[in-house]
């Protein structure tokens, strides 16, 4: 076997360099800004220039999901994108995506932080231009439902203020607030336009109230409804549970 020329060695060297850079990209997922700066300096020695957008996106998603406020601020200062910039190739941190998901953008950082209940980070992202409309609305409606279902009133209010439709999301946010017996959030959603009188919403609400015997929520729904029938609960539930018929 002959001696490899410089040209023959070049692909091996470049491949080894790419592997090292990819490993450093994974290590950048850290709650410590000091560690982040040290690793970034090491990365820049191997691959000068700014971090690629797909790496920044993966990093800000990780920070938003973990609740790392200062790291999120730093990544925003580095111009981390708030929507998935890469839709047709694998990500060095998140891994390759299945072929069936190539057209589907990755979940945005705002969705991750809504699920975690990180109010300050959600505010940072919204103030930095995170969108809740357009192609992201279906994705973010999941975060809206998740926030409602976990009782994150501040985040629910913030999303509504930013333009979120109170009737978006499944499970239905207003039904989740009934299940939680969260009077304040229920009132907020109705005030902002949640359509509790829609037949499918009403049906789901009644199922929850009947199942869990939520007397306080039944009384709350009764407000403004004139058709009320009281029935005796003889199945082990709360007696005289108010049964609110669908408003005519």
Topology of helices and strands:
Blueprint: H1 6-27, H2 33-46, H3 53-66, H4 69-77, H5 109-116, H6 119-127, H7 137-149, H8 153-161, H9 173-180, H10 183-191, H11 199-212, H12 215-222, E1 228-230, E2 242-244
Antiparallel strand pairs: 1-2
Helix pairs in contact: 1-2, 3-4, 3-5, 4-6, 5-6, 5-7, 7-9, 8-10, 9-10, 9-11
InterPro entries: Ankyrin_rpt-contain_sf
Would you give an account of this structure?
InterPro entries: Ankyrin_rpt-contain_sf. The chain has twelve helices and two strands, in the order ααααααααααααββ. Helix 3 (53-66) packs antiparallel against helix 4 (69-77) and helix 3 packs parallel to helix 5. The longest helix is centred in the N-terminal third of the chain and has 22 residues, at 6-27. By secondary structure, it is mainly alpha-helical. It has helices at 6-27, 33-46, 53-66, 69-77, 109-116, 119-127, 137-149, 153-161, 173-180, 183-191, 199-212, 215-222, and strands at 228-230, 242-244. 55% of the residues lie in helices and 2% in strands. The protein has two domains: 1-130, Serine Threonine Protein Phosphatase 5, Tetratricopeptide repeat (Alpha Horseshoe), CATH 1.25.40; 134-248, Serine Threonine Protein Phosphatase 5, Tetratricopeptide repeat. The chain starts with 5 loop residues before the first helix and ends with a strand. The radius of gyration is 25 Å and the shape is elongated. A two-stranded antiparallel sheet has the order 1-2.
């Amino acid at each position: 076997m002959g001696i490899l020329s410089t040209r023959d060695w070049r692909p091996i060297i470049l491949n080894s360099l790419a592997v090292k850079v990819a490993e450093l990209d994974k290590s950048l997922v850290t709650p410590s800004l000091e560690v982040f700066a040290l690793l970034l300096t090491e990365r820049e020695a191997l691959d000068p220039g700014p971090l690629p957008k797909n790496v920044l996106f993966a990093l800000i998603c990780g920070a938003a999901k973990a609740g790392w406020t200062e790291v999120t601020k730093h990544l925003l200062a580095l111009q981390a994108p708030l929507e998935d910039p890469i839709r047709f190739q694998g990500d060095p941190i998140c891994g390759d995506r299945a072929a069936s998901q190539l057209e589907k953008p990755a979940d945005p950082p705002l969705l991750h932080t809504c699920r975690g209940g990180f109010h300050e980070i959600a505010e940072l992202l919204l103030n930095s231009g995170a969108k809740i409309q357009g192609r992201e609305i279906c994705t973010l409606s999941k975060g809206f439902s998740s926030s409602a279902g976990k009782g994150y009133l501040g985040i629910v209010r913030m999303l509504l203020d930013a333009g979120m439709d109170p009737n978006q999301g499944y499970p239905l946010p207003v039904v989740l607030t009934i299940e939680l017996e969260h009077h304040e959030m229920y009132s907020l959603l109705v005030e902002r336009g949640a359509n509790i009188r829609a037949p499918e919403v009403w049906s789901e609400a009644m199922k929850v109230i009947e199942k869990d015997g939520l007397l306080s929520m039944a009384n709350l729904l009764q407000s403004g409804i004139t058709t009320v029938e009281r029935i005796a609960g003889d199945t082990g539930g709360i007696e005289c549970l108010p049964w609110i018929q669908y408003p005519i």
